[in-house]
């Protein structure tokens, strides 16, 4: 009985000391993105932008691009709110560049945000790129419960495999520098 009590105390310490024990860890550069299932957008413009067809769900590496850049945000995050115009500028630079518009795609995932909250954030900050809700924090958990804003970039191979080329907490202070860095990490400047 004493051993059982000691084991219980030890496990309690591990759980209290490491509250995310059992959840995923943030994606590691060189690794793969955990399986993130998202709904195919109903918005035809967003569907076309992502290169998706039909209805149902898709996995992030199925987006038709060489690089998929994911912003993890929350509509309640003051940093995300402040950063929204800069991320919009980043998106405009990508889609406005004839050599990048089909190479890099940007999406957002609103952690803890309902569809209504994500749409409110999109309208409030004039977000043009597709954004998805993660109301139940399920994606957030498999991503290691990262703080916001958090950016992940994956490079997708022609055979559909992928690897994480960027994974960091923080916003975009300069869209030109950030875009250059993402291109460098993905090997697009070669």
Mean pLDDT: 89
Number of spatially distinct domains: 1
How many strand units? 7
Main CATH class: Alpha Beta
Any idea what the CATH architecture is?
Answer: 3-Layer(aba) Sandwich
Radius of gyration: 18 Å
Approximate strand percentage: 15-25%
* Topology pattern, helix = H, strand = E: HEHEEHEHEHEEH
Helix content: 25-40%
* CATH superfamily membership: Glutaredoxin
Largest sheet: 5 strands, mixed
Total of DSSP H or I helical runs spanning 4+ residues: 6
Task: Quickly give the structural class.
Answer: alpha/beta
Q: Could you please say which CATH topology applies here?
A: Glutaredoxin
Low-pLDDT stretches? 1-22
Strand order of the largest sheet: 5-4-3-6-7
Could you explain how this protein is built, in words?
- The chain has 190 residues and is α/β, with parallel strands linked by helices.
- The protein has helices at residues 2-17, 44-50, 78-96, 115-124, 138-142, 175-186, and strands at 37-39, 57-59, 67-73, 104-111, 131-134, 150-156, 162-169.
- The strands form two sheets. The chain has a five-stranded mixed sheet. A two-stranded antiparallel sheet has the order 1-2.
- It is globular.
């Amino acid at each position: 009985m004493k051993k059982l009590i000691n084991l219980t105390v030890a496990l309690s310490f591990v759980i209290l000391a490491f509250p995310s024990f059992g959840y995923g860890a943030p994606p590691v550069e060189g690794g793969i993105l955990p399986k993130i299932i998202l709904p195919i957008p109903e918005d035809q413009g967003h569907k076309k932008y992502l290169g998706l067809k039909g209805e149902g769900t898709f996995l992030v590496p199925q987006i038709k691009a060489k690089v998929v850049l994911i912003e993890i945000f929350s509509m309640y995050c003051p940093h995300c709110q402040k950063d929204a115009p800069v991320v919009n500028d980043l998106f405009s630079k990508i889609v406005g560049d004839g050599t990048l518009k089909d190479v890099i795609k940007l999406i957002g995932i609103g952690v803890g945000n309902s569809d209504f909250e994500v749409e409110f954030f999109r309208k409030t900050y004039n977000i043009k790129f597709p954004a998805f809700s993660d109301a139940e924090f399920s994606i957030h958990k498999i991503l290691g419960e990262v703080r916001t804003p958090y950016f992940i970039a994956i490079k997708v191979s022609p055979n559909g495999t992928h690897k994480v080329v960027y994974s960091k907490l923080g916003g975009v202070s300069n869209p030109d520098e950030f875009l250059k860095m993402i291109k460098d990490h993905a090997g697009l400047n070669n």
